[in-house]
Amino acid sequence: MPFDCEDSTHANRGLSHPDVAHTLKRLHRQASGQDARVFARALPAIIAGKFTGRSTFEAAEPYLSQAFIPVSEEFGRFMYLTALSRGARNIVEFGSSYGISSIYLAAAAREAGGFFTGSEKDSAKTQIALANLQEAGLSRWSDIREGDALESLAPLEGPVDFLFLDGWKDLYIPVLKLMEPKLAPGAVIFADNIRSFRKTLKPFVDYVSDAANGYETTLLGIGSGVSLSVWRGRD
Ligand SMILES: C[S@@+](CC[C@H](N)C(=O)[O-])C[C@H]1O[C@@H](n2cnc3c(N)ncnc32)[C@H](O)[C@@H]1O
User: Fold this and answer.
1) I need a labelling partner for 101 at 20 to 30 A (CA). Which of 108, 114, 164, 232 fits?
2) CA 95 to centroid of ligand 1, rounded, Å
3) 172-179 vs 202-209: helix axis angle to the nearest 10?
4) Ranges in the chain, pLDDT < 50
């Protein structure tokens, strides 16, 4: 039977599902207003940090518990499509915040008959992210583990098909190494903020760019810079 664009079973799946689409639209709009207010509050500390040698992130961190700092719609859709095309069933995220990226990834997991596991150290954010996944109709196919991802993701069972790194940047390597023994051959790993945290993330970029470590990697100019790696495994 030819593909029928009018067929609601196709048109209503994934990101086009009304519950998913409405929740994402609401959250992206809320995030831009809320993050602008948070950064305005953090600005004096950021400026003071310039004179005391503190990085922008160090100065802003106390204010970030109420910031979304989400993926863009462009990057969310890109990850969704990548997961979809790979048929990723076991999708994992480090750093879920209020769950915007989680919704893109949980939607992909639902279509593959799989499961999405997020992680968030902030308790209030975790509860709101879970409520957002529920609003999007994705609770059955997703969970967000509260607490430090290095602990909460440790018991997770593999094989992991898709990993998204978006928590604090000094933990990209430890979280990746935690997941490494569980990665499926050909697993996809995305990491965000490669350009905006160029110095902090250099060791991470070096690690995934060295084929001897088992990865094939490219850097993409999406948003504040993204790395895309595929796990080949070590010989
Ligand atoms: C950039 S935000 C994530 C944005 C989210 N991925 C999105 O696109 O909507 C980073 C989040 O990582 C969380 N985080 C940082 N370190 C963490 C850790 N060790 N374990 C779990 N979450 C962590 C922070 O609390 C923050 O909410």
Assistant:
1) 232
2) 3
3) 30
4) 1-8
What digits encode the pLDDT tens for the residues 136-175?
999 999 999 999 999 999 999 999 999 999 999 999 999 9
pLDDT tens sequence across 86-104:
999 999 999 999 999 999 9
- What is the 65 CA–ligand 1 centroid distance (Å)? 9
Tell me the C-alpha distance between 133 and 116, whole Å.
Answer: 11
Residue among 56, 69, 153 whose CB has most ligand 1 atoms within 8 A, to mutate: 69
Report residue 192 as tokens. 């965000």
Distance CA 54, CA 65 (A): 19
The tokens 């602990």 sit on which residue?
Answer: 151
Nearest atom (ligand 1) to Cα of 95: 12
What the chain holds in terms of domains, given with CATH numbers, is 18-66 (no CATH), 73-231 (3.40.50.150)
Cα Rg, the chain, nearest whole Å = 18
Closest CA to 119 of 63, 174, 187: 174
Q: Which two tokens stand for residue 214?
A: 């088992």
Give the residue, out of 80, 92, 94, 162, with the most ligand 1 atoms within 8 A of its beta carbon, to mutate for a pocket test: 94
CA 1 to ligand 1 center in whole angstroms: 44
Q: Check residue 162 and give its pLDDT.
A: 98
